Every structure is written in structure tokens, then in C-alpha cells.
Amino acid sequence: MTNSPLLNSVWDFVFVPQQGALDITTEFGRLKVEPNEICVVQQGMRFSVDAPNRPFFPKPSGLPDPPSPGYEDREVSEYRVISKYQGHLFEAVQGHSPFDVVAWHGNYVPYKYNLKNFMGSCPAFPPTPRYVFLGVEIGDPTHNRDPSIFTVLTCPSAKPGVAIADFVIFPPRWAVQEHTFRPPYYHRNCMSEFMGLICGNYEAKEKGFQPGGASLHSMMTPHGPDAQCFESASTEPLKPVRVADGTQSFMFETCLGLGLTDWGEDTCCKVDASYFKCWQGLKKNFDPNWKPASKE
Amino acid sequence: MTNSPLLNSVWDFVFVPQQGALDITTEFGRLKVEPNEICVVQQGMRFSVDAPNRPFFPKPSGLPDPPSPGYEDREVSEYRVISKYQGHLFEAVQGHSPFDVVAWHGNYVPYKYNLKNFMGSCPAFPPTPRYVFLGVEIGDPTHNRDPSIFTVLTCPSAKPGVAIADFVIFPPRWAVQEHTFRPPYYHRNCMSEFMGLICGNYEAKEKGFQPGGASLHSMMTPHGPDAQCFESASTEPLKPVRVADGTQSFMFETCLGLGLTDWGEDTCCKVDASYFKCWQGLKKNFDPNWKPASKE
Amino acid sequence: MTNSPLLNSVWDFVFVPQQGALDITTEFGRLKVEPNEICVVQQGMRFSVDAPNRPFFPKPSGLPDPPSPGYEDREVSEYRVISKYQGHLFEAVQGHSPFDVVAWHGNYVPYKYNLKNFMGSCPAFPPTPRYVFLGVEIGDPTHNRDPSIFTVLTCPSAKPGVAIADFVIFPPRWAVQEHTFRPPYYHRNCMSEFMGLICGNYEAKEKGFQPGGASLHSMMTPHGPDAQCFESASTEPLKPVRVADGTQSFMFETCLGLGLTDWGEDTCCKVDASYFKCWQGLKKNFDPNWKPASKE
Amino acid sequence: MTNSPLLNSVWDFVFVPQQGALDITTEFGRLKVEPNEICVVQQGMRFSVDAPNRPFFPKPSGLPDPPSPGYEDREVSEYRVISKYQGHLFEAVQGHSPFDVVAWHGNYVPYKYNLKNFMGSCPAFPPTPRYVFLGVEIGDPTHNRDPSIFTVLTCPSAKPGVAIADFVIFPPRWAVQEHTFRPPYYHRNCMSEFMGLICGNYEAKEKGFQPGGASLHSMMTPHGPDAQCFESASTEPLKPVRVADGTQSFMFETCLGLGLTDWGEDTCCKVDASYFKCWQGLKKNFDPNWKPASKE
Amino acid sequence: MTNSPLLNSVWDFVFVPQQGALDITTEFGRLKVEPNEICVVQQGMRFSVDAPNRPFFPKPSGLPDPPSPGYEDREVSEYRVISKYQGHLFEAVQGHSPFDVVAWHGNYVPYKYNLKNFMGSCPAFPPTPRYVFLGVEIGDPTHNRDPSIFTVLTCPSAKPGVAIADFVIFPPRWAVQEHTFRPPYYHRNCMSEFMGLICGNYEAKEKGFQPGGASLHSMMTPHGPDAQCFESASTEPLKPVRVADGTQSFMFETCLGLGLTDWGEDTCCKVDASYFKCWQGLKKNFDPNWKPASKE
Amino acid sequence: MTNSPLLNSVWDFVFVPQQGALDITTEFGRLKVEPNEICVVQQGMRFSVDAPNRPFFPKPSGLPDPPSPGYEDREVSEYRVISKYQGHLFEAVQGHSPFDVVAWHGNYVPYKYNLKNFMGSCPAFPPTPRYVFLGVEIGDPTHNRDPSIFTVLTCPSAKPGVAIADFVIFPPRWAVQEHTFRPPYYHRNCMSEFMGLICGNYEAKEKGFQPGGASLHSMMTPHGPDAQCFESASTEPLKPVRVADGTQSFMFETCLGLGLTDWGEDTCCKVDASYFKCWQGLKKNFDPNWKPASKE
């Protein structure tokens, strides 16, 4: 355990562990957060993150779980509290552990949540239409729903129907759409999409998207399934199919543009420079002389 | 064609033909409304309803359809316009047909809508929780949604989340819920439910509910599937199943109590006095010593 | 001065003197209200109305005027206060004048307002479209505004855009509309219209509508200018014209139906049974073979 | 225990026991409600009320308390469920106890609340000004607050700031107002006030208002402290004083008029016909020649 | 036709051609936009702007017009799409024309609108008072309206009544105000005003404001008619006058401050450095001894 | 009097004189603002601030006071108006005093307000919970109110319940809380707190906070009473006590971070570098073996 906790004075943190569990100590107690769980630590709370090496006795409830009780009554010669404030880091030195809160009440408390308990349903405010649909026949929209029914957390902006950020997942489910193209369609979004994979294979990019990986599609950048996914989804019979079993992908969708740090763009050496090639196999299917077959 | 149209000065009419088509003449033109279509004639519009005996040239669009153009330039010695105003009927006599409107613009216009084009989705405002769930194990709620996603028309009240009336349908769809009881659960509703069947067999009452029939469950009257439906839905394997193919049931759900006319309660001689018996076959399944089998 | 004031426990009163002034004594002081002025006495205030026979020293401000100060310190053997409560009249006897309030503060106070100071402009909330326009060519709508810009007082309902009652006037103004029919068009209103004349001649009914008179058009009852007005407005050149100089007509427009008392319908012997005849001179102008002349 | 529970299909019940405890059995379990506690049983719940003769094991929390768990698995030959619906009583006969619910989840549940835990604070929406202050000098309003800070429960109407009903209490507290008249002032209210006493002596009517008693002041009926209270509160020094210790009075304040049943007005023989006399000792203190002493 | 379209990833474009028409090609088809028309191209749409050299077959409707249908099925070796994103320009190279959309549905579509069809009326939300009126006698405000009735487009901010930008025009109309100064008054605005002229002469600056020109009055910068306009408007008789015939001036009014590019301030060499002189001829008219003539 | 007034084109100014009075000349007249008064000068108004050396004839009303009438008809060779616009200062030269406004109407007017007239009550919108309470036993919260009841002015943001800035005071009052720690508790605030003292001694920091002084606690910086205040408030008997007599402290509380100018941080040489020591005397009181005494 380090003697150097962090706090964010202005915003909340959302943790989405993709590989390996986190042992998060807070002023309110401890949370062990494993992949497929998320954790929210709110503005102003002192916390530290370690690899889990201590026993936990979790009692998962199906609802968001508060921390396990726990406090330290520990004198430390130089405890350094790091504060992120207005984009800068500040340091304060104190002589005792900040994790010395014995009890608390109220609902201003960090929590974790197991995504397998999530049931996609209507968020508190219905979304405004946000997508520009372009490029392929959409077919009968009877069963295509806005992905917003998969919104787990939302941070609303002052503009109704627009989120500073939505946290969305694509959990295991049945696909039963008929007369349509079932994967996520080709689109441009007026929101930025930061997407990641926690486990399994993402249906729309079967090879190029691994657990621990993530993609960023900034506002109005067109994207959609790769060539392989397009081919199979265009020809398979449309009977009920179980999708995403054993997988969990997630998305932060925000009305803001997301900046890249130098670390993320260069230092980490993890950017996939050939990502765009996943669409190059898409063939031109347009035939100006095509006519629909007669139907009922 | 009669020379006696009707208008409702205070409210709109919604027509839901269950058996046989309607030929509706309005000041805005004519609408032929067939079963599985609905028609809205708004406050103050003169109209008359006949059995269809004239040729129509419909051009259905998938969207709500306005009337086919048409007007009458016809002198009539005693044209009697009946007005429903504040619960009473008034009659005015005039010397010409009221259906003499040659053209109009705007969106204050009667329309019809084919229910087969409806895609269940989020209404404009998300519903507040409205149900009291009682009596059976609900199980994993992962796929049970509020029926409000089937709302076709809503007439909102001044209280957010509460409708003066919702018009709801239960169209053909896939049932994919798992770990649960799939038919409409046993419940009491704080809204009144007036339900009817247009075609096919209703899944929760396979025998006792015929096309052209209707049921009324007033506020807080408990109801749910009949004994036969309960038995089969409790034992069938939960694989994807196509439900309601070939059927169309509908519901008016209202925060008001619905009164019964003498005609409806007595004169028509159509009340099913043994309706309550559909639940009498339900067996008591409670065993205070029962314990759940261990599960993962 | 009588010893029998009135109060309305549930609603406010709006007085619109059409012929002769009113001397209104209230707990807050006295108001002399002359034709072309209106007076509001709010819920629960004791007041009495007399013919004015005492000197006033008004200081009109252009804004709504509060009462002139004044109180009575007067013992009365049997002062009878009449209260209108839930549609009934109640009487309480007390031994002193209720007009004994020496001073007050706040804005819960009766007031009067001179309609000549009114400038038609946007009400606090813009109206929803409320009219069904039928029956005559409307032409270029460039200058036709919703009459709501003439709303002086509004009592909003819980439904945005719908008023329990609007008090509207039609003050002297310039008519500059071009390519159109300038008088109030033929229409049905989803609101009830109770209209009256304070002075002058109303443009749309030049003979049949006298100062002190009033008309009631209930919801969805079609109405519009009389035959004479239609003829002249259809043929006059459309140069700027000063209208309504020397007149003041008003309207209470309400989303409710208005009931008629026996006194109003029969006892008063003032109902104009031939009112409907003002429209009988309207000629049928429809020619199915008519074609518009070509225009730029 | 009777075999005849009640339910209200349209509204909720609020119980305020003034004398003696209630033993309330509901489908959700049992609640023992003692004086100074209130109990809410919502729309559509079956319940019965008895004198408490069974042991309870309450675990009061300081928050609203749900029922103690409990159910009956009991066959009854003729169980009669009484339903109050649209102002009428209906009866249904069934063969088993309705109190057979073994478990439930959610927050649609009856609850009780101990009024001693209430801390007066801001309600969810700030009240609009509702009072007409008349009749006595109010003095320095620095510490006079709107009684709405004592609102325990509110049932909002569709009109912001207006309640269908507020449930308000006047708990023990310090009175520290200076330069003012401390008891409830003389006023007319645009709301109806139904007030009762649970224990102790009400400060504004020290004799005439006993535990178990209640008063009704309909809209715009003036009222205020009795003569004795006025005298003492006008002359006592204004040092901090503990008020209402050992008492609990409550008020239902509603924007609706309250009707009286025959039972309440006559049959019960409990109406205090001399109630109005409590104000008859109030002396006239007005002196037109009075002048305020000069102050800083 | 260039092979280099533009898109704006974050905001919409509004085009207001002042001199010469624009030929705008978009993914949704083509729009020919002539002076006195405006064109909106929304966020994320690819488009290019040319001088019109191709035949169009416009069918103007009086309503906003969508593009004429059209698409290109064209391979291009290096098609360069320029994207404006977060204030920077980005370039992407592709091998085909982006204008290859064959069909679309929905209302996310560029459109043009002919300003001659605009009728000034109430915007969706009434404006809050925004002006500080200073410096000259305003006179009888009976006919002076807030210019907001001329708002054609508004982009609301999160603050009710405040627009990120309003697009306002001053179309031909009758001026009928009496007892007042008719031109735009001297004022400071809490909004920034960017104003331009499309055709004709602007009434408040008859010489110094030519078609194709524009002015910027930043927040709280006082401005108003030039000296010549002040003189004539102060002395002319106030009979109905037709104003702005043959002209069209427009204004973008925004709650934000507008920055100037180097090009706009220097490079273009178009800034009128003597603009301020238009007010220097205004004479001081203040006479402390002046008294109004008595009036009725 | 200088010939160089200032205006702020984008925001309003709030003046809170802590030591010595201000003589503020505006286009609307003059205001003498003394300690314990505040003054608001809105966006775009020209004003200058001097030490008061001219006689005033104030007529304080208890309400916000507008300026005393006054104007200058004064030619000046070089009058320099300084404008603060978008964070920069601009200068315009003119030949006459801008304080030449003879009369005005409306409510866009600077005003002053005497804080002694303030009565703490509910602000227009109730605050959302904003505090994180940490570190000491809070006890019975019966009388602890959110400090928001002391809000004098609020500048709301677009997010309901969050203010761009609240101006709050802590006026003389009775402290009657029981079973609790009465001074401001130890807390972190998600808002920034800029606090100052106008006169007297602040209760929570009796020595280190002088009239004319101010403190800044940025978001989420923990703070609370000094050691001395903690000791006495923890041991004194909790009888009614008059607090803050003869003092006036104020706070600007804002959801934004406040930047420090170089002048404020260094040049002024007024920063109290030992401020943090006021908490160093706080002793550790935690005893893991402590148990509460039994109570009723």
C-alpha cells in the first residue's frame, strides 16, 4: 500500500478494468473491482488503486455495491495526497492516513456495479435522434432500436437529450431482427465514441478488436462493421441468434471532442495504424439498373 | 349516404374497427378504415360513418394516411348536423352538405394508420412505474419490459408520466425472455385497462377472448393469464418463440375510471358473466417448506 | 353604501363595465372603474359595488392602478358579509365594517387598468395553434397574426399553451394586411368565445352588435363576419386603413364550456333570436370551373 | 381479526392516530401505528385496521418504516374484500386471506413514520405566496417563516407551488422571533386548513383545542389566535422560549374545498357550536390618532 | 467541380449569399442558393460550393426546400475531403466521390429558404428583455415591438430566452407607429450584432451601408441611426409608410462575443475606418429648461 | 471626480465594501455604498467609483435602493471610457460626460442593498445536496440547515440547483441547535468558497479573520473551525445563544474554480502563509474502544 492517494477535485472517475482486477481503497472503505465490473469514485474523494493482494469478503447484491467497511488509524510521517484540480496536479503532505473514516451515511459514496446484472431499458430521458444513417440499405426497422437502451450511466448536459457522456454496454442478448442488417450499421455520429472490449470477440470486428483494446471514432467520422462482418451479416438467414455470449464491449459516447495525450498517441506504441484497412475489403455493390423484386 | 353527420365539440374520436371496414366521410375527404387500421377524427370535425360501398383508391404509405381528396357541392333540403357537446347531443339544420371543403392545408386533419407498420419503441416520455406486481415468482427480469414500448398513441395529462389515455397494441414479435414467466404477469394496475382483440387468439386467454370482444379491468382490479396459459407458460422450455403471429390485440389504458352505459352492461346482452372462471382453475402452489435449489 | 359586501372564496372577479362607471369599495380602498377600464378583485377580498356618487381623485399612471387609500372605522349593528363558496352563497353577520384595513403591503391587491394603455404584444407563452380555418380563401398570410397578441390578461391552465381564460381586446389600430381578407376569418375555435362591445361599432358586425351587448360562440361553433362585412372586405382596395377608432370590443376566450343561467337565457329577455340571420345573406361563391389568373 | 379488509382503488390513505394505537395488517405485512406516528397505505393495497392485541417487535429507524414481515396462509369460507372505487363501496368474496404475500420488493409499500424524527426544512418546491395577511401589526418579519417548512408530506397538483394536500406538523421548537407577534397570525388562506391535535396544548387556542379534536377553516375564512393567546403574546418579553414541548398538532392544507359528511356535521354530535366565541374577547385596539414612537 | 468537399464536424453552416448565387453540392443533392435565399448545411455533411454553371429545375414551395435529387457514381484517384474539427482542418483522401448517396429519408437534410416568404411572428420562445434604451426620447411605445418578431432561425442556448445565435431579417413592411421615433432606436445590446445588407438601401444608414457590406456592433457598444436618418425621422409626419421595399437586411445576433480574423480586420482592406463619423453630425438637443406642452 | 469611467461589457459587478464607503456614479445616478451594504452595477453600465466627498440624502427603504437622481451636462475635452470586454480593457475617447442621462424607466438599473434588512429564507430554487460531511460526529441534525437559506443573491447556471455564484451572508441570529456541534462543520465543498468579513469577529476563526480580510477554499479543499472554536463548541452547554451580533461575514460560493492574480498571490504581500496552522491544534479524539452511553 502506497502512502499517496489521489483525488479529483472537479469531476468523477469511472473505472472500467479490462484486464485484471483493481483493489481500490477509499475514505469510505475498499472495493475490489474485477473485469466486467465498473467502479465510480466521485469528485473529491481520496482513493488509491492497487493490485489486489488482500482478502475480500464480497457480498454481491445485483445492485450497485458500496465499499466494504474499513478504516486505518495510522500515523505516517509523510503522507502525500495528490489532487487533480483544473487540469493540474497538486500535492499536500499530512501526518496520517486519510482513510481514517470510521462511518458515514448518505448516498455520496463510491460504488461498483457488475455489468452482468444490467438489463437494457429506457434511460431516464429519451434520446434525441443522433445518427446520420448512410451507405447501406437498412431494411425493415421493426426491431432496430437506438443503442441508448444499453446506457448504464449517463452524465446529462444542460441540453435535454444530449449527454456529456453515456456509458453504454453491448451485453449478451438475442438478435431477432428480421428483414434487416443486424450488426451496428454504417454511420456518422454527432457524438464521439470511445469503445473498448473487456472479454470475448466483438461481433462487428471479429479479429481486430481484442480484450484490453479500445477504439476512438471522433464526431462525424464514418464507421461500421468490417468487410468480413458485412459479408456474413448480409447473407446469413435471419433466425433468432444468441449474440455476444461470453463477451462484453463498452462505449463512452460524449458530445465533446476527446483529446489524445502524447502517451496515448505515441509513447505507448499501441496505436493500430492499419485499423482503417478493416473496411478496405468492402466491395462496391451499387448497380444503377437494379430494381427491387416485387413483394407483398 | 345519410344527411346527418356527427361532430364531437370537446374531444377527439379514435376508431378501432374490430370486425368489418368503415367508410368515414369527413370535411377533409374520405377514409376507408379496415380492421388492423385505426382512425382519428379530431375535435370539431363533421363526419359520417357508413359501410363501405364505394370504390377507394388507397395509396398506403407506412405513415399515418390523410383522407383521400373529395368534396360534395350538394344542396340538401334538411341536412341535420348532430353535435356532441358537454355530454349532450345538439342538432342543427342546414341547407347544404357540410362536406363541401375543396382544399385545406395544415396538420389538423383526420388520419388513419395501419397497425402492422408499428414498431414498438420508446414513447416521447418514459413512463413512471405503474404496476403492482403480485403473486408469482418473476425471476430474472433481464428481458421483461414495461408494456409501454407498445404505445401507439398517447394523450398526456398534465401530470408527467401519466396519460389520460394510451392506445397500446401487442403486435407479432419474438419472445426471448429467459428465467422468467413470459405472458403478462398477474398484476393490479393504477390505470384502467380496456382491451380488445382484432384478429387471432390472445396468448393469455386462448379461448375466452374472441375477435370483436373486449374486456375491462378497472383500476386496481387484479388480473392475469388464465389457468391454462399459466400451466403451459410455467413448464415450456424458454427458447425463442414467435408470439402473436396472425393476431392483433389492443388496449386503451387510462388514469380515469371508465363508466359503463346501460347498453353496454345490460341491453347488448353481450357481457360474459363467467369471465372470472378463467382463473378458477389456478391451483395453490405455495409450500412454506419449499427451498430454492442452489444455483450459480 | 350598503352594509352587505361580497367575496368570492375560490376565484377572482374581473369586471368589465360596458355602460356606466362602477364605484368599487374593497378592504384595500376604493376604485372608480369607468367604461374602457377593467378591474380585478382577487379571491377572498371583501368588496361592494355601487354607482359612483362620491368624489375620486384618480392619478392614472398608464400601469395597473391600485385602489385609492381609504378605510372605515364604523360600527354597524348587522353587517352581512356574503361569501360565494363552491357555487353557493353563505352569509356571516358581524358588528363592524370589513373595510377597516388601514394599510397593507405586498402585491395581493385589487387593481384597475385602462385599456387604452394596452399595446398588443407577445404574451408570456406563445399560443399553440388553436383555430380550424375553413370556408374562404385566406390568401397571403403575411400579415395575419393570431389574435393572441391582443391578450391583456391570461389565466393559464396546467396544459402549456391553453388558457382557462384569456381576456382579449381589439383596440384601435392600423390594418395594413395585403393580398388577404382583413376581418376576422370564418372559423371554429376549440375555445369558447364570449365577446362584448364597450363603445363604437364592431367591424365584423356593423349593425347587430351594440355597446353593452355580448355574444357567445361555444366551442367549435362556426362563425365569422356578417354578409355585409364580407362583401365590403372582399372588394375594398387594401390600402392602410385605421380600424376600430372610437371602439373597444373584448373577448373572454376559455378552454371550458360556458353554461347559461336561466336569467341569461330567458328571464332577461335580451337574447337576440335572429342573430344567425346575419350570415344568411352570404352567397355561395363556389365555381368548380374557376381557375386562378396567372400571377407573378 | 376480521375477514373483511378494505382497499381504496383511486387514492392513498394517510392515517394520523390521535388517541390510541392502530394495528394495521396489509398485504405487505403489519404496522403498529401509535399516536405521533403516521401511516400511509397506498392506492390498491388490501389492509385491515384493528386495536393492537398482538406482540410487535418494532425496530424504529428514524426513517419511514416498512411493515414487519408477515403473511397468512389461511383458507376462509367467505372472505369479503371491500373496495372503495369512484366514491362507492364494492364487495368481492373470496376463499382465502388476501394477506398471503410472502415476499415483495420495490418501494411501493405502506410505511409508518414517527413525527418526532421530523426536521422542518425546505420542501422539494418552494411555496408560492399563499396568505393574505390582515388585521394586526406584523412587525419585523426577520424571523417569521412560511409554515411550509413544517411540511412532512406533500401531494403536488399539476400547478407548480400548489398542493392537492400538504401534511404539516408544528413540532416542539425554539421561538426566537424578535420585534413581532409570535403565534400564527390572523389570516385568510386560499387553501383549506384541517387541523388536529395529537397531544399537549396548542399554543394559539390553549383551552378549546384538545387531543383528538380537530378544526376546519375553509378557504378564505379568517382565523387566528384566540383572545387569551393574543393578549399574552402581545405583552410577553421576546426572549427565546421553548414552544410546543410535549405537544404535536398537525394540519392537512389543501387547495380543494373539503365537504362535510352528515355524520361529521350532525350524527357525531361533536361539533363545537361555540368555537367562534374564542375570538369574541378580542378588543378593538385601533386609535386613528396613534403615532409610532421614534426609533433608530 | 472540384474534388475537395468540406464538412464541419461540430457545428452547422448557414449561408447568406449577398452578391451572386451559390451552387451547393451535398451528399443529399444540389441546392442553388440565390441572394435573398439562405441555406443551412448541418453538422457532418460533405458539401462543396461553386458558382452556378449548371441548369437547375427549382420548384420553390414557399417552405424550406430540400436539395434537388442527384448523386455521382464516380471513381476519383485522389478525392480530398476537408474536415473542420475543433477549430482545425483535417484532410482525408479517398478514391470516390462522397456525393454518391442515392436516396435518404428523415429530416436531417440541408435546405434553403427564400426570405421573401418569411412572415414576422412570435418565435418559439418569447425573448427576455435584452436592450438598454438610452439617449433619446422614446415616446409612446404603443407600436414599437421587439425586433425578435423578425427572427427567422434561432439556435437556443441552455439559458431560456437567450440564443447562441438568432438570424433576423428586416423585410419590406408598413411602418404605422405613431407618437414615436420609428427607426431602430439608439441602444446598447447585451448581444453582439452582425448585420449585413443583401439588396436595396438600409433605412437607418442610407449611404454608408451597401449590399454586400456588413457591420459588427459588439456587446454593449452603443449604436443607432446616423445623423441624417435621425433628422428626417424626427420631423416627418407619422402617416403609414411602406419601408424597406426592394431591400433585405439581415442580422446575426448572438450572446457570444465575435472574434475577428486577421483577414477580416486587415488583409481584406475592406474595413470602413470612418464608420463612426455617421453619428458625428448628431446635435446636442438637450435643454434643461424645456417643458412638455400640456396634453390630454 | 475623474473623467474615466469603467464598464463591464459581459458581466455584472457586485461591490461589497469591507472598509470605508464608496461613492459610485452611474449613468442612472449616484449611490453611496457603506460597509454592510452591497451594490450591483449591471453589464454595460458606465460608472466610476470614488471616495465619498459629496453630501448624500439617502432615504433607505428596507428594499434594494436605486440610485439617487442626478446627471451631468458637461463638455469634457477628453473623456476616456474604459471597457472590459472578453478579458481585455479597451478605451474610447469622447467629448462629454457619459453621466448625462436625465431620466430612465424600467428595472435595468444599479441598486444597493443594506444587508441588515436581509431575512434568511428559501431561495427561488432549493439547493441540491452539495456537501461532503466528514471528520466529526454531527449528532442530531434537527436544527442544522443548509447555509443556502442565507443566500442574498444567486446567479443560476443552466444546471438546476447549481449556481454560477451565490452571495451568502451570516447575519446576527439565535443559535438554538441541540445535541449537535453548532459552528460550521468540517467539510469539503464541490463549490469554491470565497469568504470575507465586513465587521466584528467570525465565530469559527476568532483571531485569524479580521474585517477587510478574506479567505479562499477551492473546490474539495477540506476546512472547518479552528482548534479553539472546536474546543469551546464541543464543551459549552447548548442553550439559546445570540451569535454574530455586531458582525457580518459573507461568502461568494461558485461552481467554478477561482484563479488568483499575481497581485493577489504575491504583489499585495497580504497572503497569510500560516493560515493552515489554525487547525494544527486539533487533537486526535478517536478511540476505537469508545462506546456510546445508552440513551432513551
From TrEMBL, chains A, B, C, D, E, F:
<comment type="similarity">
    <text>Belongs to the homogentisate dioxygenase family.</text>
</comment>
<keyword id="KW-0479">Metal-binding</keyword>
<dbReference type="InterPro" id="IPR011051">
    <property type="entry name" value="RmlC_Cupin_sf"/>
</dbReference>
<dbReference type="Pfam" id="PF04209">
    <property type="entry name" value="HgmA_C"/>
</dbReference>
<dbReference type="GO" id="GO:0004411">
    <property type="term" value="F:homogentisate 1,2-dioxygenase activity"/>
</dbReference>
<dbReference type="InterPro" id="IPR046451">
    <property type="entry name" value="HgmA_C"/>
</dbReference>
<dbReference type="Pfam" id="PF20510">
    <property type="entry name" value="HgmA_N"/>
</dbReference>
<feature type="domain" description="Homogentisate 1,2-dioxygenase N-terminal">
    <location>
        <begin position="1"/>
        <end position="54"/>
    </location>
</feature>
<dbReference type="GO" id="GO:0006572">
    <property type="term" value="P:L-tyrosine catabolic process"/>
</dbReference>
<feature type="binding site">
    <location>
        <position position="187"/>
    </location>
    <ligand>
        <name>Fe cation</name>
    </ligand>
</feature>
<feature type="binding site">
    <location>
        <position position="223"/>
    </location>
    <ligand>
        <name>Fe cation</name>
    </ligand>
</feature>
<dbReference type="InterPro" id="IPR014710">
    <property type="entry name" value="RmlC-like_jellyroll"/>
</dbReference>
<dbReference type="InterPro" id="IPR005708">
    <property type="entry name" value="Homogentis_dOase"/>
</dbReference>
<keyword id="KW-0828">Tyrosine catabolism</keyword>
<feature type="binding site">
    <location>
        <position position="193"/>
    </location>
    <ligand>
        <name>Fe cation</name>
    </ligand>
</feature>
<keyword id="KW-0223">Dioxygenase</keyword>
<dbReference type="GO" id="GO:0005737">
    <property type="term" value="C:cytoplasm"/>
</dbReference>
<dbReference type="GO" id="GO:0046872">
    <property type="term" value="F:metal ion binding"/>
</dbReference>
<feature type="domain" description="Homogentisate 1,2-dioxygenase C-terminal">
    <location>
        <begin position="145"/>
        <end position="286"/>
    </location>
</feature>
<keyword id="KW-0560">Oxidoreductase</keyword>
<feature type="domain" description="Homogentisate 1,2-dioxygenase N-terminal">
    <location>
        <begin position="69"/>
        <end position="115"/>
    </location>
</feature>
<comment type="pathway">
    <text>Amino-acid degradation; L-phenylalanine degradation; acetoacetate and fumarate from L-phenylalanine: step 4/6.</text>
</comment>
<protein>
    <recommendedName>
        <fullName>Homogentisate 1,2-dioxygenase</fullName>
        <ecNumber>1.13.11.5</ecNumber>
    </recommendedName>
</protein>
<feature type="binding site">
    <location>
        <position position="202"/>
    </location>
    <ligand>
        <name>homogentisate</name>
    </ligand>
</feature>
<keyword id="KW-0408">Iron</keyword>
<keyword id="KW-0585">Phenylalanine catabolism</keyword>
<feature type="binding site">
    <location>
        <position position="223"/>
    </location>
    <ligand>
        <name>homogentisate</name>
    </ligand>
</feature>
<dbReference type="GO" id="GO:0006559">
    <property type="term" value="P:L-phenylalanine catabolic process"/>
</dbReference>
<feature type="active site" description="Proton acceptor">
    <location>
        <position position="143"/>
    </location>
</feature>
<dbReference type="InterPro" id="IPR046452">
    <property type="entry name" value="HgmA_N"/>
</dbReference>
